[in-house]
Design brief:
heterodimer, A: alpha/beta, Rossmann fold, 6-stranded mixed beta sheet, 5-stranded mixed beta sheet, 17 strands, 33% helix, 25% strand, elongated, B: alpha+beta, 4-stranded antiparallel beta sheet, 4 helices
């Protein structure tokens, strides 16, 4: 499934702004042109209060600097000459964000224009911004891969359907949508590992909400089935690999006792291989596989429980015969 | 691709070719459909790659996510018995600008 090692992407100030200007309510205050290609070498935020106060050891200057109420009030308490002096310590930072929609005082504007640092402002209060921006930065910097496969959400379980083109992934997805489940991505799925270590799946932006059905062409799913038929992103819980049925089925698990997994971005994801044969209703199989996975996540493993019971009954019978 | 390469083509060898998107609107729905139709005639696995992202050439949705605009450089990778014929047919499509100029 993965053909290339996932790379941790470099993030530039421009990308941060593009990704966050909506949710973080960011706008440009100064030097937007310098944001292009300007790398955020340490993907995190810092409040430079101590550094502005003169304690420069451990100043995390590689991070985006957030100036909140405390920093601004402190700077305002200084003499004009001193302020300019103190602001110069910011010369090597990737970018500065002013919170609470605060505008830059004129003296800051002059100093930073001179230094060329991109300055944004956010309408959010500092604490809220720090939280939201940290999550955004983590998402931007987490490794991402694109895999062939159709992603659907079945009763709260995220399932990636895999199989060669033409095997019927989209048709099964369509049948599942008609049963009330939701499409995340058709045929191409973008996967990323979030900060909790879970794999998150989403569609590639340009084809989001669309799918291709042989004979029909490209359809817009929510317009036909309503908004509940799609979902923006979903945790990946289970991979179902569809394979044309052949004589040899040595690797098809008939008991469900052996759990197979696949390593996706360093996370082991449960994998089920389902043979495709004429007349087999795979929609049901996929739906039940998802529900079975949900049972497992809740701590019930049907195959193992039945096997335990069988073993108990069989050993009892053997004991009786012996005695 | 050298003739040697072609002679060695078997089920496990991957053949590669670079192509440039020459038609005005790039790989939109119609060219993508043409590519899928052409690729599906062959048994081999065919991938198209742009900026390190690979998609299956037999998948319309895959091709659309490539965002192959006019002037974009793509790589065709084909693995399988009829890989060289498949590459020739796909290169031909690109060179004919998907019949749309």
């Amino acid at each position: 499934m993965m053909r290339r090692p996932a790379e941790t992407p470099r993030i530039t100030v421009e990308e941060f702004f593009e990704a966050g200007h909506g949710s973080l309510e960011l706008s440009w205050e100064a030097n937007a042109e310098n944001a292009v290609g300007r790398e955020i070498s340490e993907v995190a935020l810092n409040r430079p209060g101590l550094a502005l106060a003169g304690f420069l050891r451990y100043f995390a200057y590689r991070r985006i600097q957030v100036l909140g109420l405390a920093e601004m009030s402190y700077m305002n308490s200084l003499s004009p000459e001193e302020r300019v002096q103190r602001y110069r310590i910011l010369r090597n930072v990737p970018a500065v964000v002013l919170s609470r929609g605060r505008r830059m005082p004129l003296y800051v504007r002059k100093t930073t224009a001179e230094l060329g640092i991109p300055i944004m402002r956010t309408r959010l209060v500092t604490g809220h911004f720090m939280n939201a921006a940290t999550v955004l930065l983590q998402n931007l910097s987490s490794p991402r891969i694109r895999v062939p496969g159709t992603m659907i959400e079945i009763n709260g379980i995220g399932v990636l359907l895999e199989g060669e083109p033409g095997i019927g992934k989209s048709e099964i997805a369509l049948a599942l949508i008609k049963r009330g489940h939701s499409l995340v991505a058709d045929d191409v799925t973008s996967l990323t590992r979030d900060s909790t270590g879970a794999i998150q799946a989403s569609a590639v932006e340009i084809t989001r909400e669309h799918m291709e059905i042989r004979g029909l062409g490209i359809i817009h799913v929510p317009r036909i089935f309503g908004v509940s038929s799609i979902r923006g992103d979903m945790r990946l819980d289970l991979i179902i690999r569809m394979r044309k049925q052949t004589r040899e089925e040595g690797d098809i698990d008939r008991t469900g006792l052996d759990t197979t997994t696949r390593n996706v971005l360093g996370v082991e994801v449960p994998l089920v291989t389902v043979p495709v044969a004429a007349g087999r209703d795979l929609t049901n199989v996929v739906e039940v596989a998802a529900l079975n996975q949900r049972l497992k996540q809740m701590g019930h493993d049907s195959a193992r429980e039945l096997d335990e019971r069988l073993k108990k009954v069989l050993s009892r019978k053997e004991n009786r015969r012996e005695s | 691709m050298s003739p040697d390469n072609e002679a060695m083509a078997d089920a496990s060898t991957t053949l590669e070719r670079e192509v440039t998107v020459e038609n005005q609107f790039g790989i939109h729905a119609r060219p993508a459909a043409l590519l899928v139709k052409t690729a599906s005639r062959f048994a081999c696995e065919i991938l198209l790659e742009k900026n390190g992202v690979q998609v299956n050439a037999k998948s319309i949705m895959g091709l659309l996510t490539l965002e192959g605009h006019h002037g974009a450089k793509l790589r065709i990778l084909a693995t399988g018995v009829d890989a060289s014929e498949a590459i020739a047919a796909i290169v031909d499509l690109f060179e004919r600008k998907f019949h749309e100029g």
